[in-house]
Amino acid sequence: MNMSIAKGANLLLMFVLELAVLATAAAWGYSLDAPPIVRILAAVAATAVFIVVWKLFGAARDARYKLTGLSRAALEVLWFGGGAVLLGFTWSPTAGVVLFALWVINGVLRVLWDQVDTVAAVHKR
Q1: Which residue in 42, 41, 65 sits closest to 52, CA to CA?
Q2: Which domain holds residue 103?
Q3: CB neighbours (10 Å) of residue 70?
Q4: What region, left, alpha or beta, does residue 74 occupy, with left being phi > 0 and alpha being psi -120 to 50 degrees?
Q5: Which Pfam families does its entry note (predicted)?
Q6: Alpha helix stretches (DSSP H) within 31-92
């Protein structure tokens, strides 16, 4: 496999994992044992919280407060870890562990392949 294809696939995986966290937040909110309107509001609110946090601190191109180094790593651990926990509650603990493990592998590869700032560069094009 061509290394540039593998690196591109890793960036794609990062994007898919971001979408998975947002979908998981919505699914968790909707899975609550509550009246339908409360479930809908919880789904929207949970997703909105994740979106706002990512927009403020994690968005590749236009984060309001761009984090780097350990603060960026902490954000990702909390953001993807939160998504994994919600997936564990919503679907199964195994699914949550798989989501988190995929993020860990993706993160290690992003560091090894110097893709930490590349994510921002790709989105600028």
Answers
A1: 65
A2: 3-124
A3: 8
A4: alpha
A5: DUF2568
A6: 36-53, 69-90
Q: How far apart are CA 58 and CA 53, in angstroms?
A: 7
Amino acid residing at 74: A
CB 99 within 8 A of CB 83: yes
- Per-residue pLDDT of the chain in tens (125 residues, 90 and over written 9): 688 999 999 999 999 999 999 999 999 999 999 999 999 999 999 999 999 999 999 998 889 999 988 999 999 999 999 999 999 999 999 999 999 999 999 999 999 999 986 444 444 44
**Cα dihedral 105→120→56→18 (10° resolution):** -40
Read off the tokens for 42.
Answer: 């919880």
> Alpha-carbon distance 84 to 95, whole Å?
8
* Structural domains counted in the chain: 1
DSSP state of 1: -
